[in-house]
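I am writing to request your help with a piece of structural work I have in hand. The matter concerns a single protein, recorded as an amino acid sequence and a row of backbone structure tokens. Could you please explain, in whatever detail you think fit, how the structure tokens follow from the sequence? Thank you for your consideration; the sequence and its tokens are set out here:
>
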Amino acid sequence: MRSAILCTADAVEEAFYEAMQRGDLEAMMALWADDEDVLCVHPGSDRFVGLAAVRESWARIFRSGHVRIRCTDVHSHTGAVLAVHNVVEQTLSVDPHGGASGGMQIVECIATNVYVKQAGGWRMMLHHSALRQGSAGAAAAERLH
């Protein structure tokens, strides 16, 4: 499945986080570049290289449902064919220790998203997300995305 032509890297990023929030694997994969050099690193995980590995990584995450996430503090640079965005991802996650939060906590990650402009519009080339230093939920990092 290939999505409509996305005219900006910002549009790809918006669709990327919407697909994550819906747990929609097909919509997620439609955003990635047709390139076996695509890369994805989820918090607390190894590096996934290539479309099949990236797809399987998201399929595994979405088997647990959607990801409750929002982005803040976006810094971006866009050139003629490459765009780099750095964002703070705030993810609502289950607190393994319960506590006053009702068993939920906000975990912050720092993510870098790289987009390339291809004949079919802008597409994601890299998503790398890591737990923010000092963020609650280090134990939950593997369940984030």
